[in-house]
Amino acid sequence: MKTLLLFRHGKSDWKAAYGHDHDRPIKKRGDRAAARMGRLLAEAGEVPERIVTSSALRARQTQEAAARAGGWTAPVQVSRALYEASPETALDVVRAAPDEARSLMLVGHEPTWSLLVRLLIGGGSVRFPTAAIARIDLDVTAWSDAAAGRGTLIWFLIPRFFG
Question: Which region holds residue 5: left if phi is over 0, alpha if psi is between -120 and 50, else beta?
Fold first, then answer.
C-alpha cells in the first residue's frame, strides 16, 4: 500500500506584480491556509516522506509554508512537469517516486488534481479548493504500478473547515 497526498497550492495573488502565470505568488491568506494544513498533517501523523512540488512559485511557497509550520523534513523535488500537467503526466511523476517512500505528496494545480483523483479512484467528481489536500491510498507495492482505478480516496481536507 502506498499513500499519495495531493495538495493544491494556496490562494494566489492575482494583484501582485508578476510577468508570467508561473511566477504568481500566494496571498497572505494562502500562506496561512498552507501553514494550517501543514500543522494539521503533522498533528494527525500524516507527514509525507517525499514531496514533489510544481515549479510554479505559488506551489513552492505553499509547500514551504506547510513544511515550516508542520516541521516536515521530507526531501523536496521541484518539477516543471507538474506545472500545467495533464493527469497522466502527474501520474508519471508518481510512478517515478522511489519505492522506499511509503507516502508521497504532490503540490500542484487545478484542474489536474481533480482529474487525477477521478482517474485514480475510477470515477466520481471532486472540486479542489485552494490549499485542500486529498489522501489516496494506492493498492500497489511499487509506485511504478500506480494506475487508473487502483486508488481509494481516504479523506479530503479543506482549510476552511479547520479555522
Answer: beta
Residue 67, judged by CB atoms within 10 A of its CB (0-12, 13-18, 19+), counts as buried
pLDDT in tens, 104-135: 999 999 999 999 999 999 999 999 999 999 99
Residue 103 CB contacts under 8 Å (≥ 6 apart), including other chains: 2, 3, 4, 5, 46, 47, 48, 49, 50
Give the other-Cβ count within 10 Å of 77's Cβ: 13
Task: Decide if 162 contacts 36 (C-beta within 8 A).
Answer: yes
Q: Which residues contact 3 (CB under 8 A, 6 or more apart)?
A: 102, 103, 104, 135, 136, 137, 138, 154
Q: How many residues does the chain have?
A: 163
Residue-range domains of the chain with CATH: 2-162 (3.40.50.1240)
Q: Is residue 75 reached through a cis peptide bond, with omega within 30 degrees of 0 on the bond before it?
A: no
